Amino acid sequence: MLLPRGSRRTSVQRDGFTLVELVVAMALTVVIVYVAFGTLSYALGVARRGQDRSEVQADLSAVIDQVTKELRQTTTQNDGVGGATCYGLTVPAPATGTGDVVRHLNDVLSGFSPHPPLSGTQQYILDASKSLLEFYTYDVDPTDPTPATPSLPLVKHRIRYGLSIPSTAALARRYWPLAQYQPLQVTYTNDTFKGTSWSSMIRQPITEQVVTDFIVIRLARSHGAVQLIIEASVPSASGADVSPIRMMAQVTVRQ
After folding, report:
1. How far apart are CA 178 and CA 180, in angstroms?
2. pTM of the model
3. Least enclosed by CB within 10 Å: which of 9, 102, 190, 254?
4. What is each CA distance from 155 to 73, 128, 140, in whole angstroms?
5. Is the backbone peptide bond immediately before 142 cis, with ω within 30 degrees of 0?
6. Are residues 159 and 132 in contact, defined by beta-carbon separation less than 8 angstroms?
């Protein structure tokens, strides 16, 4: 049956999107992907900085544990081995009167070094001959075949803790968490007396370059008490600020 001329209709089918619709869809996709990647990047950064902080805390806690354990083994016997004053806790010196004896970063800087807070391009110059902590202990000879029941004479140790800056691959200034305080490493030296002289062990770093100060205090009000404080700084979780870390301990040295 034929429809009248004026009654005919045509049907138009669309097989896709218009150019405008495609452009809008692509723009929305780009925005969504950009926001998603930005959020993911921020979350990964927060997680990484949180992990870094945890690692630094574990690092400093291990140092505090090591120092307190060794200090409790300090020998108090003036046996003359190694020298007339080679016994007990020798650095810092004993407190006299009512004032505590405090030893920290400024006490191991060279006479030519600037003191914190630093400015401009200043950096610390450390004196390798100075220590923050020095004491003496006895231990079993590592060559003793029966260490549980020592058959060889005990070995005397001179233990020193200090601060240093890595000689190579030191942290560039732009990466310092605090621009006024150059990050440092805690160092460890364990010399032994070899009958006629002391061995000369190379100072070994025992922390990453994150420490801002290591403070040792001999308390005047408490006989034999020593306080240990290690301070460090790391970027905060957001990365926009600095997050300080402070580890403390107190140990009583045998007198």
Report:
1. 6
2. 0.82
3. 9
4. 13, 25, 6
5. no
6. no
